[in-house]
Amino acid sequence: MFLLQAAPVFATDTSTLAPTFYLTDLKGDDFFASKVYGEKAPEPSAVIFSFFATWCIPCRGEVPQLEILAKEFPGIQFYLVSVKDKPELILRWLNDLDVELPVLVDRYGRTAKKFKVIGENSAGKEVASLPSLFVINKAGKIVYQHTGYKPGDEQELKQILENID
Length: 165
Known about the structure:
Layout: E1 3-5, E2 22-25, E3 30-32, E4 47-52, H1 57-72, E5 77-83, H2 87-97, E6 103-106, H3 110-114, E7 118-120, E8 126-129, E9 132-136, E10 142-147, H4 153-162
Parallel strand pairs: 1-8, 4-5, 5-6
Antiparallel strand pairs: 2-3, 2-6, 4-9, 7-8, 9-10
């Protein structure tokens, strides 16, 4: 288990390219980031990744807002990335929130570490900054990163999505 960190202590630089990664979704289907964004993607798309955990209270507020935005911006792909949760817990959590966004399962936190959502504090304990949201443009550049959630954050995100390439 790791500690929840409210502030982005490991924030990824928004001037960098997003890491590529491989995960499976809740159905067991493969997801390759390189097929969604970046120069190797056959049909590049802007994408949102929201890293969450079922025990994260602020995540419960952010995810339903992302569901609303996903319907408003159908040309942008939205994914929830579950950090170190078991699939049965994820399914129950999604059902409780009545959310249908696709979920990628980061069972061991490797992808979260690539995005610097998980790191170590000064005592050597693993900590996670959740929720952590990343907006990636078609070229694969991180154009926005936000950690935590409070009501109204979705308005800033909406403005960014209105202007993404």
